[in-house]
Amino acid sequence: MQITVSGQQVEVTEPLKSYASEKIGRLQRHFDHMTTGNVVLHVEKTHHMAEATIYAKGATLHADATGENMYAAIDALADKLDRQVLKHKEKTTNHRTSDAPLKKQLI
User: Fold this and answer.
1) Measured CA distances, 36 to 14, 52, 56, 69, 100 (Å)
2) Among residues 16, 24, 51, 65, which is most buried (max CB within 10 A)?
């Protein structure tokens, strides 16, 4: 998955960029059909915020999170996206395939 990390009103350092890429990249362990991801980091006064948009097969997932520092905001963002990816994966799986063996047992 191609991940782009950018900053608004904040300089994105290399450790911060690699941390965000690593956290968002872990989402592929749940769902392989993700193509690209955009992460935007910004600061408003004392609030550190992270926003992400993930483009997956059949859906566009978006989340944002705030934290007391940028690493905490990225962690919260990754947790929110993780839940969204699992929910999307559940929706896309075909639930009817498990009923076929049950019908054969009843006959």
Assistant:
1) 20, 11, 7, 25, 36
2) 24
**Residue 105 binned pLDDT confidence (cut-offs 50, 70, 90):** low
Structure-model confidence comparison of residues 83 and 94, the more confident one: 83
Tokens representing residue 53 in the block: 């948009």
DSSP characters over 51-88: EEEEEETTEEEEEEEEESSHHHHHHHHHHHHHHHHHHH
Q: What's the pLDDT tens digit per position in 2-54? A: 999 999 988 999 999 999 999 998 888 887 778 899 999 999 988 999 999 99
Report the relative pairing of strands 59-67 and 2-8 from DSSP bridges. Answer: unpaired
Which of 66, 43, 63 is CA-nearest to residue 52? Answer: 63
